[in-house]
Amino acid sequence: MGLDPDALAYITAITTAGATVTSVQQNAIDTFVKTGKSDGWYSSLKRLYLPIWANAAANAICLRSLTSGTFVGGVTHAAGYAEGNGTNGYFNFNASMPSLGISENNCMCGVLAYAAPTLGSYMMHAQAGTVPFGIRSTSTDLLASTYLNNAVGYNSAQSNHYGIIVASRTSASSSALYQRQASGFFTRSTSATAPTGSPGSESMFLFARNFQGAPNGYCAFKAGSAFVSLGMSSADVTAFSINLKTLWETLTGLTLP
Questions:
Q1: CATH code 2.60.120.200 for 5-252
Q2: Which of 32, 77, 148, 196 sits at a 20 to 30 Å CA gap from 5?
Q3: Is 16 exposed, middle or buried (0-12, 13-18, 19+ CB in 10 A)?
Q4: For the chain, domain boundaries
Q5: Mind spelling out the 3-state secondary structure of the chain?
Q6: pLDDT tens digits for 13-42?
Q7: pTM of full prediction above 0.90
């Protein structure tokens, strides 16, 4: 069988943008897409970026939609990851959550962090008015996700704020913070508290906080992936994250810490 059409379209797009994609990498992308469709979680994804190609134009292309975000300021494009400088660099998804069909009771966001972020900063974030949505590493060693004024967090040393970090809400009474590392998959925190707001018109930013359209709270860390999605169950997050780990490791030759 040939490559999945969606996998082929992504490969064509990033190649046109300047990336070099080997046959091994093409097969890895194809396997990820086909597995996601077979398992059922692929359709929930709305944006999935793989900023691994050491090429800003290719890194900006979404695997799921083929739309492009925008890198702004100091972002380094290395082989295997992109890195914000913690001062003025960020990535704009160029899409609000409502425009993607994401609602307060059906939402997910996450990153693949190859190294821990700076404390007191926002790994990814969107906020319209007083209603935040994203993932941050606080100044008190708390890895936290904010679901529209309902936060769940994991108290651990900043040095542990790495791996695949996923914040998912599947209903008004069910949200969770997950983390996949080389040592395994963990449910770090759960909450049955309902959100007190809904997603606004602001776009999601990576490496910074989007506060009512203005970036701040810049974050320095090495990102191998960033994504937003409809909410996924624990089982789907488990499956999605192990497949993302395999994809990233195969594409880059690096190992998830």
A1: yes
A2: 77
A3: exposed
A4: 5-252
A5: CCCCHHHHHHHHHHHHCCCCCCHHHHHHHHHHHHHHHHHCCHHHEEEEECCCECCHHHHCEECCCCCECEEECCEEEEECEEEECCCCCEEEEEEECHHHCCECCEEEEEEEECCCCCCCEEEEEEEECCEEEEEEECCCCEEEEEECCCEEEEECCHHHCCEEEEEEEEECCEEEEEEEECCEEEEEEEECCCCCCCCCCCEEEECCEEECCEEECCCCCEEEEEEEECCCCHHHHHHHHHHHHHHHHHHHCCCCC
A6: 999 999 999 999 999 999 999 999 999 999
A7: yes
| Residues composing the chain | 257
